[in-house]
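[[Encoded backbone]]
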Amino acid sequence: MTGARHAGKAAQIAIAGVALLADCDGALYWPEEKLLVVADLHFEKGTSFAARGALLPPYDTAATLARIGVLMGRYAPHTVIALGDSFHDSGGPERMRAQERALLSALQRGRDWIWIAGNHDREPAQGIGGSFDATLGIGNLLFRHEPTGAQGEIAGHLHPIARVSAAERMLTRRCFVSDGGRLVMPAFGAYSGGLNVRHSAFGEVFGSFDFTAHLLGDTRVYALPASRCV
């Protein structure tokens, strides 16, 4: 099982021998590389639903970008990796409003921005800046969208959430999931849903349920064994 040493709004997690910071806002930071990772942004999910007649407030992209902006101020990363499903569908970049496009461009200025292909956005998009890769390996770590269970893997896709009983009520929180060898990140997007860490999909990735859920609190990250989750 992995331990976590809390540092301000983040907890230190070691994955494949690499020291990372799991931020309570749902991002991962690699101090040695000055690298920030976010997963499953699902930009333009609101407009995607609206096109199918399910009306949602069309502000999810702006809200998600604003949260990324907070992280930029906190960590000043040299590189950002968006770990797939950055747009909810292939038409998302075209529907993105000019003000959100300008904000994205401002966030990218002066740093490398890498879009990893997801199952919602497999092909590179035009006009959104950055570079595109299917996967990216750096040192002991491999960044991809869909988890395979490989050692050193940092993935998204599953949108993990954990449910725990606390003070006679049930709490549901987004979370990082890790066994020290690999990690699945929480979804970062404003309109992203979640999959309970007790779902069989997580057992398949980690080979068992002997992993830790690092729950996102308001000001810190809380590490709990999966056996404590319901």
In short: The first helix runs from residue 45 to 51. Residues 1-6 have pLDDT under 50 and may be disordered. The domain at 5-228 is CATH 3.60.21 (Purple Acid Phosphatase; chain A, domain 2). The first strand starts at residue 5 and ends at 7.
